[in-house]
Design goal:
The longest helix is centred in the first third of the chain and has 23 residues, at about 5-25. This protein is mainly alpha-helical. The protein is built from nine helices and no strands. Helix 1 (about 5-25) crosses helix 2, helix 1 (about 5-25) crosses helix 4 and helix 1 crosses helix 7 (about 110-120). The radius of gyration is 19 Å and the shape is elongated.
């Protein structure tokens, strides 16, 4: 990474952090580009160099959170998918320290973000994240247990 790329990404990170801090204090629709820039210590033109809208910044924050979350697990996605496909049914559960410790550690280290997600799930696009979780993890597990598609869709929305 060049010095210019490093500066670019560092500036984006500062704007992400400023945005999330503002999200704790006020509703998404009332956050302005000026506030983000002031808190991040950047000019408005710098904001628009990175993003077209605050919605774009929000999308990037959510993507970055999801990527960071995945990095907390020692078991990589391909290994986990193999386990879902081939593990004996009695071993097909995720309430183990292998999965819970990284999950809870991530939440503990990112309390600010999770407060925002819990208070404003629609703004933080939580439904997309959970849809991915259902599609990639829960659906294959339910299929292994023989749960019908009709019944599994009910289970998702009752959680």
């Amino acid at each position: 990474m060049t010095k210019a790329e490093s500066k670019y990404f560092n500036t984006a990170r500062r704007m992400d952090e400023a945005f999330l801090e503002l999200m704790e204090r006020k509703d998404f629709e009332y956050i302005t580009v000026s506030e983000i820039c002031e808190l991040a210590g950047v000019n408005r033109s710098t904001f628009y160099l990175h993003y077209e809208t605050i919605g774009d910044l929000l999308s990037e924050c959510v993507e970055q959170m999801n990527a960071q979350f995945a990095e907390y697990f020692k078991v990589k996605e391909t290994e986990m998918m193999r386990k879902i496909e081939s593990a004996p049914l009695e071993e097909l559960f995720f309430m183990t320290s292998e999965f819970l410790v990284p999950y809870l550690t991530y939440i503990s280290e990112h309390k600010t973000v999770f407060r925002v997600v819990l208070n404003k799930p629609e703004v933080m696009q939580a439904n997309k994240t959970y849809d991915g979780l259902f599609c990639d993890v829960l659906n294959p597990i339910l299929e292994r247990y023989g749960v019908s598609e009709k019944d599994s869709s009910y289970d998702y929305y009752s959680i």
